[in-house]
Amino acid sequence: RKEVEQDPGPFNVPEGATVAFNCTYSNSASQSFFWYRQDCRKEPKLLMSVYSSGNEDGRFTAQLNRASQYISLLIRDSKLSDSATYLCVGSGGNTDKLIFGTGTRLQVFP
Amino acid sequence: DADVTQTPRNRITKTGKRIMLECSQTKGHDRMYWYRQDPGLGLRLIYYSFDVKDINKGEISDGYSVSRQAQAKFSLSLESAIPNQTALYFCATSDRTSGDTDTQYFGPGTRLTVL
Fold first, then answer.
1. Do A34 and B103 touch (CB under 8 A)?
2. For strand A98-100 and strand A104-109, is the pairing parallel, antiparallel, or unpaired?
3. Mean pLDDT (10-residue bins), chain B, 115 residues
4. Are B50 and A96 inside 8 Å of each other by CB?
């Protein structure tokens, strides 16, 4: 079983839609979680960190559920420019390394 | 100018050749990483370095070696390239001294093809 698992998609949604991605992790010692965004053939870029209390940045909301070991990303009012692959990332417990999921692809259409 | 740069950006080589991929950063970060990305497998850690004298193997280090020449430079070598090392390679950095210790910043990637 992979340490960080996510649905590869693709999720095809119309502009203006709300879309949610979930991700599960297996290492209960993981302390930090992130969502990265990766455009085709480009480098991953940090989208947002994920905290137990949840955090929101504009149209994006991230949540962490430690009891069930999953994190989520909610995108409201989807834009064409949101089309990308979203990588779920967890820290490797005490090892100061990041473990990346394989990514969920989002395609927003007009 | 980009904070994390990688050279070359694209490389096509033949089986058995020695290849070096270079990474430089101007962020002043102490930690540097090399990953490869393959379709369906995501990013996998090859090697990482927490400072100039600290080198660690990652998940898939076989067939690779690294050199941390300075805090700002971290090179990845393929001593004898093989076709299954065809992939997109990323360098990344992070800063132990900041409050954001786990956030990693990636270079633009090197697309390597081994024929």
1. yes
2. unpaired
3. 89 96 95 93 92 92 96 96 96 78 88 96
4. yes
